[in-house]
Design a protein that fits this description.
This protein is 30% helix and 31% strand. It is an alpha+beta fold and 392 residues long. The radius of gyration is 32 Å and the shape is elongated.
Amino acid sequence: MNTNNIKFLYKQYLKCRLSPSELMELKQLLANEDKQSVFNELIDRDWDKLDEELSTPFPEERKAHIFNTIVSKTEVTKSPMRLWKYIAAAAAIVIILTGAYFINQHIRYKNEQDLFASKITPGTSGGTLTLPNGKIITLAEAINGELLEEDGVTVTKTSAGELIYGASQQSASIESGTDPNKMNKLQTAKGQTYILTLPDKSKVWLNAESSIHFPSKFSDKNRKVNLVGEAYFEIFKDAQHPFLVESGEQTVEVLGTHFNISAYHDEGSIKTTLLEGAVKVSSATGKTQTLKPDQQAVYDGKSIVISPADTETVVDWKNGYFIFKDEDFKTAMRKIARWYDVEIVYDTDIPIDLEPGGWISRKSDIRTILNRIEATSGIHFKLEEGRITVTK
């Protein structure tokens, strides 16, 4: 029998497609020492393809059952040499079955993980706009161009994923006595971001799972918006009209500056980071702190703590990256969950002091992101339908 026939029987066995006559032929081959070397080469080749992470053992009872079944069919009247050959054949089959088990387990696991990974995609530009009259516009479905013109206000959507509020030629952007009921809401879901130009020409980059409430026209006293989630602001300078950002029990006051606010409900604190200019951070308890560039204020509901900030890491999301540097592991995983719209589940024995490292594009597929974290943190991930399980 030539090598191709041996390979054919081997592949048929792995696929569980051997006929009774082919199985007998396989047994006879394994009793032939000259043919066993070919099988050994095939087994070695497939074992080399296995991932190191695959650690499910081949059940011992299955090995014993296979061995005993083959040996029990061996006639005791045969010579010791012939008996030894049959036992050797049985051992060889156990080796093949063990290899086949691992190979099939690995292939099945890898295919399953690839399938789940293909369903978890990076976020994109998108969101919903709720107008003062309650009408909701899904921005991904809206046509580019002017969406509406009402009460001297125009709303335009650009092809670059930006919403622009402006005043018509008959109206100024600052109006006395703005109706507080005429508020707009721009909201992003998990896996979405959007850019907003406010009526005063200030720009806002809204991160995933966030929302901002703002008037169609600002009042003659100040420019006030309300933020939930995270946003980066570039404020148009107007000394006569302070810009206010309310986030829960915190208020940030600016005249003209660049800053980032992270006010997610599941983070436990509000972080305000200043890149340019100056801002004043106030709490509902009356505490106030003034930030300088490259500083961050952290408000936990009780106090405001100022510390140096790595601004490049803070605004990584705005620039299209994940930069995991000196960051709490679960905080990093929450960022991934928001962007890829997945649930994160932890094994009970996962340490909380892990620090993932790395710099990677937010356009990367989920498997690339997780592989990078695995390489730097020593933990592993299992993908399921809309879920990532973190294991050791």
